[in-house]
Amino acid sequence: MNLSLKVLAAGMLLLMLPVHSWADDPNTKIKVSGAKNVTVLLNEGVLYASPNTFELGKKWDVSEEKNKIYVKLKSGAGRQESVQIPSKIISGKPYVDFGYFAGQSGITYKYDEKHKKITLKKESRDSGKKEEKKSRQVIIWDPEHEFSTSSIKDVGKDNAIIISPTWGSYKDVSQNDFVPDLVYLKGIKDNGFNVLPLIHNDFDIPGTSAFMHDSKMQEKLISRIDAISEVYDLGGYNIDFENMKQEDKNLYTDFIKKLSGAMHEQGKMVTVDVTVYNEWSPTWSLCYDRENLAKAADYLVVMGYDETPGNSTVPGSVASYSWLDDSIKVLKKSVPGEKMILGLPLYTRVWVNESGRWKSRVLTLKYTDQFISRHKLRPVWNDEEKQYTSSWKEKGTAYKTWLEDAKSLEDKMSLVGKYGLGGTAFWRYGFEAENTFSELLNVKENQEKNGKIDIDNFSLHDYLAEKKQKLQKMQEQ
């Protein structure tokens, strides 16, 4: 090959190579003022800092163990805890998301983007409980960690949005290797929403009873989740303990008192899930001392669904308006309205009579319109229950359903204003139709459709007797 061809080939090779500019370097080093021996980098638009940076606030001790970064701090329960935080390997060394963790570690900073310079200083903030929000609480349970802020385009100015991802059982989160999903948390908090992870008891009666009788195990859990909430800047927790021994209800209340005391010291919130009152259900209803739970926790989240359980042999609604209305009247005898959040279902059940026995299948709002169209249904509005209902036959098989949609849910949400409740919760994310949240979160919840209710003259005995009569009539049909 002659010289001219070699030059041409070399030129073509250079053209094929990617153009690189130092301005586009993914690891731009940031000048740091106010501290020594720390490193801050701008990597893919995110500020990352060397782990030792987070000791500047004098709240954390940071260590690296087996390529993992741990924060050591004192929890609100007074115990020393070690919490793992995620890191990113940059140029062979671990770095931590500075923007997310700086505040919790006790430092703040001023970032000069133009000159790629930050000034670090110890954070100055008041200790104690944060200022109480006056907005109505809106909890969206997200068991699969699928939440996307794009699903809520207009949240309404009076709503305080809380996303509640399921973190697992009290046993799961007590483990030292438990690490929350930082990408998920950032996506929620960057949009101004709060995070209250759900912790459950696996609905395990003997295991939960053992936990209730083990004060050391409770102290370990409380200290652990308190420290995690502080490190990851959570709003608190949603406690979902169900299916428990009735004789353990005072122990459960004591546990919630201890948990709330520790969390409130850090300005965090505790919400407790409870069922509606049912005198015939010792492990699902009578296991709660709702009056004293409400005094300890910030809110009781009333699970206003499964009026007719999935294993029922008698078809019925998941959450009829009249059932919810009556249930709230009962609860208000012992729990102030403002301490209750009304949990509503984004699903219903389709009842199928197979060989003379009724069985149910879950139908979510997401697929309701499609279901109606496929089966060519003509639902009829039941004004007493505030739901569309439908009964039909296919190839000799009988079907029944009490549908949930935006209209039925809006009517149930009116109970929040009617009884002065603290907000609304939805089970669950992923069950909603395309515009469900945007429609429901703009409902004027404080509009009392039926006037003020005289709770003082409400008779629990008469209510339970009437409920028993309704059940008998349904069974006779």
Give the integer mean of the pLDDT values: 87
SS-based class: alpha/beta
Beta-strand share of residues: 25-35%
Distance between the termini: 97 Å
Overall form: globular
What strand line-up does the widest sheet have?
11-12-14-15-16-17-18-24
Radius of gyration: 27 Å
Number of helices: 13
List low-confidence stretches.
17-24, 126-132, 445-461
DSSP strand tally:
24
Major sheet: 8 strands, parallel, barrel
Provide keyphrases for this structure.
477 residues; globular; 29% strand; alpha/beta
Describe the protein in words.
This protein has 477 residues and is of the alpha/beta class. The protein has helices at 3-16, 98-105, 170-173, 182-189, 205-212, 215-231, 249-265, 290-296, 321-331, 365-374, 406-418, 436-440, 460-476, and strands spanning 27-33, 40-43, 46-49, 61-65, 68-74, 80-85, 88-90, 93-97, 107-112, 117-122, 136-142, 159-169, 194-195, 198-200, 236-240, 269-274, 299-303, 340-345, 347-354, 357-364, 380-382, 387-394, 397-402, 423-427. The chain has 13 helices and 24 strands. An eight-stranded parallel beta barrel has the order 11-12-14-15-16-17-18-24. It has a seven-stranded mixed beta sheet with strand order 7-8-3-2-1-10-9, covered by helices on one side. Helix 6 packs parallel to helix 7. The protein is globular and about 75 Å long. Residues 17-24, 126-132 and 445-461 have low confidence and may be disordered.
